[in-house]
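Researcher: Structure for this, please.
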Amino acid sequence: MSSQRDVKQRIDSVKNIQKITRAMEMVAAARLRRAEQRIQALRPYADAIRRMTRQAAEAAENVPNIPVLAEREQQNNVGVLLVTGDRGLAGAFNSQILRAGTRAASEHRDQGQNVVWYASGRRGVSSLTFRGQDVAGAYTGFTDRPSFADARNIASDLMAGYVDEKVDRVEIFYNGYISPLSQEVRRETLLPLQEASILGEEEEEQEQEEPDQQRALVEYEPDPEEILKRLVPDYVEISVFRALLESTASEHGARMTAMRNASENAGELIDDLTLEMNRARQAEITQEIMEVVAGAEALS
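Model: Predicted structure, token format:
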């Protein structure tokens, strides 16, 4: 059995760790509230961009003439963007994205396709590098609070790779935010636009409920093709930015939950160690009493 001093030192060590995990939980909770507000502010704009892009694509007659919208007959190279965090201590937040991306890459390779990796966040970049994968685009240092400029930088590389035919398809993997306790891995296709999910969830539900409702006629000036050229980059940038914001909120929620669980586990460990220390104290007292009794009997 450990001595009373050893157990007390372990208790003090666990208490110090518990203070750190509680502080990290409070910081994550504060950052989560701000991330939720940014998502709520972006979602209406993102849905509007997606709706306008879809309507312009339906009205356009020469979509293949737009380079970024040209659909390839054979998709030999698939670009995969993994959206992870710069830091750990967030439970399975990063690992589940890496598993989903690796699983998708195996599916593409089974179909004879090459995978071109892009990664946002140090965890994703370091994991891919450790596994010997070449990362065509690495974006780090902003996952706690991503800006639209960060999303534009990523989207620009993805669109350039598609136009230059380095990739024939672009997929993105990120953690979609549902609640502080729940996140889900989402897999979306950004390019080609013909295969992308350009409808927001609310609009999809509305169209399913009212399929026979006649849509308003829209007159385009200039022509739909020219408007589509301007809308598509905005659509890709907004889609990437939304994924970054969703991932940030998910990361803060996952870290808050992980730190709360760590604090609770530390409390349970402290209780167990306190009980062990009390037993050690009782054992020492009993030993001292026995020694006193033995000495008294020897003197008598």
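Researcher: Any notable elements?
Model: The mean pLDDT is 85. The chain has one domain: 25-256.
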